[in-house]
What does this fold into?
Amino acid sequence: VPVGILMWRHPLQEWKGKGTTAHFYEILLGRCYTYTQIVRPELGHKDCQKIGKAFTTAFLSKDPCSSTEQDYQPLLELTAQTVPCNKTLFWSKSSQLAHDYTRVQGDLFTLEDTLLGYMADGLKWCGDPRSSEMNYQSCPDWREDCSNNSFSVFWNAVSKRFAEDACGVVHVVLNGSISNTFDERSTFGRVEVFNLRPEKVHQLQAWVMHDVGGVHSDSCSSSSVNNLKRILKERSIAFSCQNNYGPIRLLQCVKNPEPSSCRFYV
Ligand code: N1C
It folds into this structure.
């Protein structure tokens, strides 16, 4: 029996989570060029080819459950970027609202308004130790497979840098419609709060937003927000808190004008 040419590919490992986003590399490169040429042309000197390579080198041909922050260091170095003092905006369980706000208030930056956050936002990626390709079939799930997976480690590393770089008065949008308004296990509570530099960051201002039409409550005085206050006090960073900050409330009401709490605006 003629054997012919057999192409043997190692089967990729199977994980519980969704696989790498289709066209991951093309999306990454496209976003890099969009950001550096159009969104922030002052970063036009950044080398997107090099950045794209550094991104994939961080995780290809590696076990996606043994990812380290070290893997992403070359990528972090290539994407260094200055956010002006007083312009950093953190968020936790309020992604949509925070990003809606920075879209209108163009001088504030969330992590996704910086180059690396912009490139990676919403994407999923992982490699496999026995192949040089991306695994489009499945990637580790944080809960069911491992917490040290390629994208969780990435978000930890970039969130850490984003917080370390912050200066002046910084802001955070928190979700007052959930019980854990400040969640110590979230990236904000676990990574960012502890990587603010007290010698540079004078104050953290929290905006606690409630869903419009929801029950009225004073979340700034809730126990979870008090916990945040306590942590910052120990770190010598001043804290202030405001329920339903007007400009963001306005945006919520644009999307959902019916509730009586929006009558004032519309
Ligand atoms: O865990 P979170 O919120 O508190 O993380 C948000 C916090 C922000 O201030 C960001 O600076 O941490 C940073 N950050 C991102 O920018 C980001 N973009 C996308 C953290 N995580 C980010 N993601 C993905 O959303 C990532 O997969 C992570 O697990 C979630 C976190 O969302 P969250 O729990 O609402």
User: Anything to note?
Assistant: Residues 24-39 form the longest helix (16 residues). The chain has a mean pLDDT of 95. The pocket of N1-cyclic inosine 5'-diphosphoribose is lined by residues 90-93, 95, 111-112, 117, 121, 155, 159, 162, 186-188, 192 (CB under 6 Å).
